[in-house]
Amino acid sequence: MGVPGPFPGSAGRHPAPVLDREEVDRALARLDAEYEAIETSLLALQDHAGRRLLEGADLSGTTKERWAATERSITVLWSHFDTYTAALTAARELRARRRWPSPDDLAELSELLSGNGLTVPGEAAAGDGPEGGRRSGRFSLEELVERINGLYARSLDVIVAADAVWSTLPARIDLLSAELQRTRSLAHSVGVRPGEHPAGDDLERITDELARLRGQVIADPLAFWVSSSTGSSAPGGGRPDTGRYDRAARALEGVRREIEAVLDVRQDAERRLMQLRDVLSRADRTLTEARQARGEVLAKIAASEVPAVSGPSTALHEQLAAAAEYRRRSQWHRLSPLLDSLEERAEDELHRARESLTAVTAPLAVRAELRGRLDAYKAKVARHGLAQDPLLLERYDTARRMLWSAPCDLRAAGQAVWRYQQAAAEALVPEQQDRGPDEREHRGDR
């Protein structure tokens, strides 16, 4: 509810000791206008919604102390207004006696309008003026208006500030609490509960914080008021302090995002589990192939070190079974981190299996490469018409017998293939014009 600002004052004016008739009439007109403004403002203050809330609230802390002082100020304010009203009424009645007031009437009116003969109750006079009040309790009308202005401004400031906090924070807290309840319901649906998931514990802390915050705002609104940094003297100059509310809102938003991530896990859980089963199955098949290949290598390759092949990862299969159980029980908050870990470790397991197969089959790959090289040189020699060369036939048969026998000595077979290559290379060198038949026979002996 709007309340007018401080009343118009008349400070700084120094009337003559005795006013003439025109000056008296002007002073009365000005005081009548001031009276109307003061009365309107005081009635609005009396009906202000913030005042009614403060009067009926169970206050504590800063607000309790300041409202007690404000209530005393309002009592003093009305006492001052009563004195002001009585003085103005007496001046009006005296002026109304005669159209042309006598010198005695003018002297009495001057005293009423500009003198300092007005008195207020001692309790109301002490300590409430702009400069701390006076013991005598005697004032002029101008001084009385100044005191009323000061009391009114201070009282209105407390009422407006409390009303602003009550109009802002409880409603926002209630909206956030409603959002919190929706988030809690969603969290419970995916198994996010206190003691079982960090987000569930966070929801409990946010719930407690909002309950405490709302209670403190209702009981002590002025504790959540930040005065204007510009030093504004306007009533209610400042803003509600929303720091704690903002922190709770940010915390709730973080929990909501985490729960959405859990929901995403629920939607993709079956697909991810199928992919994990496929990756681990490929890893197991690769390890089985590596173990079979190792037996073949040990049987077919001599003098070769073949690395051992480990079995499937029991731990990964157990964790995969646990993940399937979490999905069956809708424990999405536990499934989410487990799937993340399993996906990375399953890829590592498949990579390890492939490396084992490569390491185990390396001797067979070497033998296959030697066989291919031997056959390639034989075909090359045949294209040049040297297939029946006795030396080449002998060395080819030696190398082939080593490579196709079991177990195969790769070192000896490799040397035999190399000797055949050397012989073939020499045979394929174009004969020089100055060579004779004896030189070819001599090359054959070498």
What report would you give on this structure?
- Helices cover 72% and strands 3% of the residues.
- By secondary structure, the chain is mainly alpha-helical.
- The strands form three sheets. It has a two-stranded antiparallel ribbon.
- The chain is rod-shaped, with a radius of gyration of 52 Å.
- The termini are far apart.
- Mean pLDDT is 81; it is low at 1-16, 129-136, 431-436 and 439-446.
Short description:
By secondary structure, this protein is mainly alpha-helical.
List the SSEs and their pairings.
Elements: H1 21-47, H2 49-56, H3 61-95, H4 103-114, E1 118-119, H5 122-125, E2 138-139, H6 141-189, H7 198-219, E3 225-227, E4 238-240, H8 243-300, E5 301-302, H9 314-328, H10 332-360, H11 362-383, H12 390-403, E6 408-409, H13 410-428, H14 437-445
Parallel strand pairs: 5-6
Antiparallel strand pairs: 1-2, 3-4
Please compute the radius of gyration using only Cα atoms. 52 Å
Principal-axis shape equals: rod-shaped
The total of beta strands comes to 6
Beta-strand portion reads under 5%
End-to-end C-alpha gap:
121 Å
Share of residues in helices: over 70%
H/I helix tally:
14
What is the H-and-E element order?
Answer: HHHHEHEHHEEHEHHHHEHH
Describe the main β-sheet briefly. Answer: 2 strands, antiparallel
- Kindly state the mean pLDDT as a whole number? 81
Strand order in space, largest sheet:
1-2
- Low-pLDDT segments, ≥5 res: 1-16, 129-136, 431-436, 439-446
The SS-based structural class is mainly alpha
